């Protein structure tokens, strides 16, 4: 029973974010700080989770994933409501009727800094509650319900093309120069966010174009999954406009774009500096891994990335920890923060990349690594 319950930590985090927006003002900032501390401190003190339990009721675990859609919808609604001038759908009045708490006054008395906290909390939740869950669901190409839920979750970050490119492009070309999401050695993370976004969408379009051609269907039609995905995001933008006009719309759009860049930050740290011959199978050594307990439990084992790329069809609950795989700097959120600071990132990752060359690379990959080091512009790699 415990192994089913531990994944509900994910939902606890989401509910805490929703409650922070309902509380308004300083509660939003407190919620952001609390959630950041939960991941960073929790991973630091709780150690690794290397358990591999067997689950006899996988339907419960799938239902946990599906629950992310109403949860994220509630979080984003509360977030956008927090910047509106009116009490949309009487939300604040309902909160007061149920709890006695005057949510509207708390919202109206918030200072601009609390809205800044709201922005960070919103795009973080779109990334955690939305993208992480969608990543798992859109691998289940045989399950139409999971695909539908996953694509709606991706619509919150304007990234429904991820369901195409990630599954049919990234997993094929990961750790090679042909993969938009794999950052070559020495690349700046902020350049990578933009480059990977552009190249990833181009790749998704081309993949869908080829699929439609094989099926004998037109590219500019509702058969085009890429275009249908854009309509989902447009529907969310329209909802934000209906809630609060251009101000609410701008707020939501900026949060969504930031959440997309957050995904590219994660791609950056998951595959930075890896090299592979695209003609050879993907192995656990071709992804950076981590087994930190809090990240694993509250991110549906996204942390076990090495096994995921070696066998992309394996559901999250059955992923193995691979403690001998190349390891990230820390848990997911801690590593993300380091990756966002380029000088610190390169200082800490250069030794890890050189260790990968020595410990994990095949003879062919050692040659590819030497070439990548020479082009990196990082002195430590070039000397290595």
TrEMBL record:
Keywords: Cell inner membrane, Cell membrane, Iron, Membrane, Metal-binding, Monooxygenase, Oxidoreductase, Transmembrane, Transmembrane helix. It is found in: Cell inner membrane. Residues 112-320 form the Fatty acid desaturase domain. It is a multi-pass membrane protein. It comes from the Bacteria. InterPro entries: AlkB/XylM (IPR033885), FA_desaturase_dom (IPR005804). Signal peptide: none annotated. The chain crosses the membrane at residues 30-47, 59-81, 116-137, 149-169, 219-242, 248-266. Coiled coil: none annotated. The keyword Cell membrane applies. Belongs to the fatty acid desaturase type 1 family. AlkB subfamily. PANTHER family: ALKANE 1-MONOOXYGENASE 1. This is Alkane 1-monooxygenase. It comes from Thalassolituus marinus. The lineage of its organism: Bacteria, Pseudomonadati, Pseudomonadota, Gammaproteobacteria, Oceanospirillales.
